[in-house]
Amino acid sequence: MVRRKADGASKDFVGRWRIVEMELWEADDIDLVGPAFIEIDPDLRGEFRFIAVDGGLDCRAVERTGRAGVEFSWQGSDEGDEVSGRGWAAVTDDGALEGRIFFHDGADSGFRAVRL
Fold this sequence. Notes:
By secondary structure, the chain is mainly beta.
């Protein structure tokens, strides 16, 4: 298997980010089982957690409106039920990470995260 690596400007999104707001849920809710986060590794894998949802990410580096970003597919669990989906994220001018996560056959929500 060939491993991908983030390069150049795409390294801007690599790291651990604290999800501080989501479009569909209040801050207290997104931290239900622990601090909400999204983490993207240099090998373009990662993980996330919010509410009772956690999952693994398979990312691709992209440019979104001139900014470093990723598109990803994900799979994981929601209160023990298997779930999956897709999403994207990009670094904003103020250094935050903003994006949207989609559940397969379900809801989607925008999010904003700050680097830890």
